[in-house]
Amino acid sequence: MKASTRNVFRCTLTNVVQGAVSAEVTMDLADGQTLSAIITERSAEDLGLAPGVEVFALIKSSFVILATGEAPAAMSVRNRLAGAVAARTDGAVNSEIVLDLGGGRTMVAIVTLASAQEMNLKPGDRATALIKASHIILAMP
Question: What does 60-86 look like in DSSP terms, one character per residue?
Fold first, then answer.
């Protein structure tokens, strides 16, 4: 599988809660980290999702919101992956920030240059990637 999405994670499903319109899918990312995705019920059925099934979780870098340090507890964003800034590349309009999540995994975020400058993130700084469950796309290996 090839994709233009910068963030691709191979995960194992741990739980699938099916509803009338949507399904909530919980995945083990590794090292105690999890991801949750909200997809349509039809997609869950078509993919044959069930605990133990392996999937790819795809997250566009522009869907990743960054917080400096650890994200506050009271937020509506379910997915929070903490890491250390591995790299930052500034462009004229946007900046690319790469977080090292550990275990050989990275998360790439594209933020505005103004935001990157305001947050003053640099290699070694701690940050948290925030991803809405509805922004995760699932694919089968």
Answer: -GGG-EEEESSPPSS-S--EEEEEEEE
